[in-house]
Write a structure and sequence with these properties.
single chain, 111 residues, alpha/beta, five-stranded parallel sheet, 5 helices
Length: 111
């Protein structure tokens, strides 16, 4: 059975994004659901790494961590208020459709 990308949404992401992904059968966690409200970026990073999830964020600090060479399962970044919830969901669905988890590892995709 092929593996598919599973997402984790950090604290700055609208819950409607998770709801939209779930309507399409995508496995997604949110910061509030996994008890990480108020957690540091490092804790969010660690959660997504240890749970084999691609991190979706609107926080550019995660791009700094990526540039420093820290291992990760992939980051999808979208600047705040640059896209609607629907556009973000469609972008994440495209990534889910087109890429395998192994292809996302260590990679950043921009929406």
């Amino acid at each position: 059975m092929p593996r598919t990308i599973r997402f984790h949404l950090d604290e700055n992401c609208a819950r409607a994004i998770a709801d939209g992904l779930r309507r399409h059968g995508i496995d997604v966690t949110t910061t509030s659901e996994v008890g990480l409200l108020g957690a540091t970026d490092a804790e969010q990073w660690e959660y997504s790494l240890t749970h084999d999830r691609v991190l979706f964020t609107q926080d550019s600090d995660f791009l700094v961590s990526h540039r420093s060479g820290e291992a990760h399962n992939g980051i999808v970044y979208c600047p705040m208020e640059s896209r609607s919830v629907g556009q973000i969901v469609r972008g994440l669905l495209d990534i889910w459709d087109l890429l395998e988890p192994e292809e996302m590892a260590g990679r950043v995709e921009f929406l």
